[in-house]
Design brief:
alpha/beta, Rossmann fold, 4 domains, 10-stranded mixed β-sheet, 6-stranded parallel β-sheet, 27 helices, 38% helix, 19% strand, transferase, Putative Potassium-transporting P-type ATPase D chain
C-alpha cells in the first residue's frame, strides 16, 4: 500500500511541535556513559520551554553532581514494596498516569518491576505511558538488548537478569546513541562514580575492559543504525539492494556486493531472484551484516520504481542489460555470478602524502564526530577537558569556537585559553589557530575546534587539519570536532541525500589516523528545537536553515551517515575488495570532471587502484582544452590516464580493462532513453561487447 505523503508530513509536524506523544530511547554502551545526566538535562531543557516535564524514575546513586542537577525538578514519589522484611522502591506507573505530565523521564528500562505493577518489565511501562498520551524519555545499556545479551554475557562472564526485546527499540520514535570514550568510562570507574571502590579492579578486568567496551560500542552503533531509517525518495535512501540469482554459493556474491555498498556508505539488503537458496542467502547476509528480504522476485516482472535503494546490484544477463539501457537516478553494479574474486584491500595513493605528512604520530587524536552543527561536539569536548583537568592533566584550549552560546562559554571557564593568531589580508581580519604558539606551550592536551576549517590566506597550512597533524607530531594529544558532511569521500553521498554541495572538506583518512572517534548523537527533533531557540544560528537565519539543510529528512540522513562513519572508524575489519582496479571511461564532456572525482572517491573507499580512459570516436568534435582539463583532474586524483580514438569504443574499453587482471569498468549512466533507430546506451553496449562486470554511476 502506497503511503500518503501529505499525511506523513502532517504527522511529522504534529510530532515536531509536541502534540503527539513520543518514545525516545537513549542507548549507551555501558554504565557510566552519562544516561542519567542526559535524562535530567533533557527534562530541565523542556521545562525552560514551558512544557510540563517531570522525572518519573532515576537513580542518582547518591552522586552529588546528579543530585544537584535534579534539584528543583518535579519528581514523582516512588512506590514502596515490602519483600522478605525489606522495603524497596520502584517507579509508580499509576501515579504517573494520574498525574499525566506532557513529558516523563524513565531511567533503567531494562528492569524487572516489583509486584504491584500491571507489567512485568519497566520497558512495557514506558510503552503504556506513551499509549496514554505521555512523551517518555528513557535509557538503557545496549548489553540488555535480547540480540546483544549473549555476546555481552560471553565478554563479561556475568548473566544479565533483565532483557529488553529488540522490538522495543523498533517501536521507539527516536533512538539516540550515547557514545563515550572507553578511557573516559574507565576514568569514571576509577574515581568511584560507577561501582564501589572495592569492586573497581574486578570491573576493570571484566565488564569495563578496553576490549569489552570497544565491542559494546560497535554493537551500540549498529543497533542505533538499524532503527535509523530516513523517509526519503528512492534515489536518496542510504540502502543498496543486491539481487541474487540461484547459484551454488551466495557467499562470494553477497560479500562482493557488500564491499561496493560499503564504499558508497550504504546499508545492504539481499533479495533472492527465482529459485535462489534462501537458507544459503540467509547465512551470507548474516556474515556480511546485511538484511535478507526472503520473498523471491521474478526479474521479468519486477517494478524497479518500487525498490527503495540508491544502488542496485544485479547479475549479468538480460535483467542487467534492460536496466542499464535506461536513464537512471541511482547507481548500478552489474556483477558476474560466476566471479568469486576477493582480495585484501590496499591503501591507495599513499594516504600519508594525501594528508600532507608522515603517518607517524606521537600525540593521540580524538575526534568528536557529529551529524550537523549544534549537535554538542564542542560541549562534549570541553566536558572531557574538565575531566582531564580533574585528573591533573595539563589541558589548553588552542582554538575553541563557542559561537556565542552561553552554555558552551560556561564550559570554557577554568580552561587555559591560548591567544589566537590574527591575520589581515585584503582588508579582512581573520582569527586562526596559532600552531607555533601551541607547540611552544606544549600542553599534554590541546583542544582544537572545527577540524575541517580552511585557514586564512598566507598561513603556512591551507587547512586546520594540517595544523593538527603538526601538533600531534610534536607529541601533544589533540581533542577536535568534525561534522560528518565535511569528509571528502562522502561529498557525493551528502549531495545525494541533502541536495547541498559542501565546499569545505578534508580527507576522510583523518578518521583512520584517529585513536578515538566519538559519536555525538542527537535526534533531528532536538536539533531543530535548538535551531528555533537560536542556539545554532541567529534567529534571522534559523527559518531558512530549518527549511533547507536542517530539514527533518536531511538531518535524519546525516545522522545515519555519522553512525556508519563512527562504526567504520573503529571497526577492526575491512571488507575484502571485489576487484583490484577501477577503470572509468569518460568522454569529452565538462561534467565528466565531477565523474572522475566521484569515481576516485569510490576507489579510495574500496581500497583499489584507479585509472581513467578517454575513448573518442572518429565523429567526436573534441575540444583540446576540455580534454586537457579532464586529464589534469585525473592526475589530481592520482589516476592513470589513457586516451584513444576508435570506432569501436565499447570493445576497446574492455580490451584496456583486460590489460590489468581483475579490472572493472565504470561508465556514466545515459541521459536519455534510447529509441529506435538510435543506438543503445553506452553501458548496454559495453555489456553486449563482453564486459563481465560493470559499474554505472549517476551524474550528480
Amino acid at each position: 500500500m502506497e503511503s500518503d505523503g501529505r499525511r506523513e508530513n502532517a504527522e511529522a509536524l504534529l510530532d515536531e511541535y509536541g502534540r503527539r506523544p513520543r518514545l525516545v530511547i537513549y542507548l549507551a554502551a555501558a554504565p557510566g556513559a552519562g544516561k542519567t545526566r542526559r535524562l535530567i538535562e533533557e527534562i530541565r531543557r523542556m521545562r525552560t520551554q514551558g512544557r510540563d516535564a517531570v522525572i518519573g524514575w532515576i537513580d542518582t546513586k547518591e552522586r552529588a553532581d546528579l543530585d544537584w542537577l535534579a534539584e528543583g525538578v518535579p519528581r514523582l514519589t516512588p512506590r514502596r514494596v515490602e519483600r522478605n522484611g525489606r522495603w524497596f522502591e520502584d517507579f509508580d506507573l499509576a501515579a504517573a498516569l494520574a498525574r499525566k505530565p506532557a513529558v516523563l523521564a524513565l531511567d533503567e528500562v531494562a528492569h524487572v518491576t516489583l509486584p504491584g505493577s500491571p507489567y512485568a518489565n519497566r520497558w512495557e511501562e514506558a510503552i503504556a505511558l506513551r499509549d496514554a498520551g505521555i512523551t517518555v524519555i528513557c535509557a538503557l545499556n545496549v548489553a540488555h538488548l535480547e540480540s546483544v545479551a549473549p555476546v555481552a554475557e560471553r565478554l563479561t562472564g556475568f548473566p544479565l537478569r533483565a532483557l529488553v526485546p529488540d522490538r522495543f527499540l523498533a517501536s521507539a520514535d527516536e533512538v539516540v546513541a550515547l557514545d563515550v570514550s572507553p578511557r573516559l568510562v574507565r576514568s569514571r570507574l576509577r574515581s568511584g562514580k560507577i561501582v564501589r571502590e572495592a569492586d573497581v579492579d574486578t570491573a576493570l578486568e571484566r565488564t569495563f575492559s578496553e576490549r569489552t567496551l570497544q565491542i559494546l560500542r560497535e554493537l551500540l552503533l549498529h543497533a542505533v543504525d538499524s532503527v535509523t531509517v530516513p523517509s526519503v525518495s528512492a534515489e536518496r535512501v542510504s540502502t543498496a539492494v543486491t539481487f541474487v540469482p540461484a547459484i551454488p554459493s551466495a557467499q562470494a556474491y553477497v560479500e562482493r556486493s557488500a564491499a561496493v555498498a560499503d564504499a558508497l556508505d550504504l546499508a545492504l539488503e539481499v533479495r533472492p531472484l527465482g529459485d535462489a537458496d534462501i537458507a544459503d542467502l540467509n547465512d551470507a547476509a548474516r556474515r556480511n551484516n546485511a538484511e535478507l528480504l526472503s520473498e523471491p522476485i521474478d526479474p521479468a516482472t519486477i517494478d524497479l520504481e518500487r525498490v527503495r535503494a540508491s544502488l542496485l546490484i544485479v547479475p549479468r544477463g538480460a535483467f542487467a542489460r534492460r536496466i542499464v539501457n535506461h536513464a537512471l537516478e541511482r547507481d548500478v553494479f552489474v556483477i558476474d555470478p560466476e566471479q568469486s574474486f576477493l582480495a585484501d584491500p590496499v591503501e591507495p595513493r599513499q594516504l600519508e602524502e594525501h594528508l600532507g605528512g608522515s603517518s607517524e604520530r606521537y600525540g593521540r587524536l580524538t575526534v568528536y564526530l557529529g551529524a550537523a552543527a549544534g549537535s554538542g561536539k564542542t560541549y562534549a569536548m570541553l566536558d572531557r577537558a574538565h575531566q582531564l583537568l580533574d585528573d591533573g592533566v595539563d589541558v589548553v584550549a588552542a582554538f575553541v569556537e563557542t559561537h556565542g552560546r552561553a552554555e558552551t562559554e560556561r564550559m570554557l571557564e577554568g580552561i587555559s585559553v591560548l591567544p589566537r593568531k590574527i591575520v589581515s589580508k585584503d582588508g579582512i581580519r581573520y582569527e586562526e589557530l596559532d600552531r607555533e604558539a601551541t607547540i611552544a606551550r606544549h600542553p599534554q592536551v590541546a583542544l582544537v575546534d572545527e577540524l575541517a576549517h580552511t585557514n586564512a590566506p598566507s598561513l603556512t597550512s591551507q587547512k586546520r587539519y594540517e595544523d593538527v597533524l603538526a601538533i600531534l607530531r610534536s607529541g601533544i594529544d589533540v581533542l577536535t570536532t568534525l561534522n560528518v558532511q565535511h569528509l571528502e569521500a562522502l561529498n557525493d553521498t551528502i549531495f545525494r541525500l541533502t541536495k547541498t554541495r559542501v565546499r569545505e572538506t578534508l580527507p576522510d583518512g583523518i578518521l583512520s589516523l584517529a585513536d578515538e572517534v566519538i559519536l555525538i548523537d542527537v535526534s533531528s527533533h532536538t536539533l531543530r528545537e535548538r535551531m528555533r531557540d537560536g542556539k545554532i544560528y541567529p534567529r534571522e537565519r534559523a527559518e531558512r536553515a530549518l527549511a533547507v539543510f536542517f530539514s527533518v529528512e536531511n538531518l535524519t540522513a546525516l545522522r545515519e551517515i555519522a553512525l556508519r562513519e563512527a562504526a567504520r572508524a573503529r571497526s577492526r575489519e575491512r571488507h575484502r575488495v571485489p576487484f583490484e582496479r577501477l577503470l572509468l571511461c569518460v568522454g569529452p564532456r565538462r561534467e565528466d570532471e565531477a565523474l572522475i572525482r566521484r569515481c576516485s572517491q569510490v576507489a579510495a573507499r574500496l581500497g583499489v587502484e584507479f585509472s581513467v580512459a578517454m575513448i573518442l570516436e572518429p565523429r567526436d568534435a573534441a575540444d583540446p582544452e576540455l580534454i586537457a582539463a579532464l586529464q589534469r583532474e585525473a592526475h589530481r586524483q592520482r589516476a592513470g590516464w589513457q586516451q584513444e580514438t576508435t570506432a569501436a569504443a565499447p570493445r576497446r574499453i574492455i580490451e584496456l580493462a583486460r590489460q590489468v587482471p581483475e579490472t572493472v569498468v565504470a561508465v556514466a549512466t545515459t541521459l536519455r532513453r534510447p529509441r529506435w533507430p538510435q543506438r543503445n546506451a553506452f553501458a548496454r553496449r559495453v555489456l553486449d561487447a563482453g564486459a563481465r562486470e560493470l559499474i554505472v554511476l549517476t551524474r550528480r
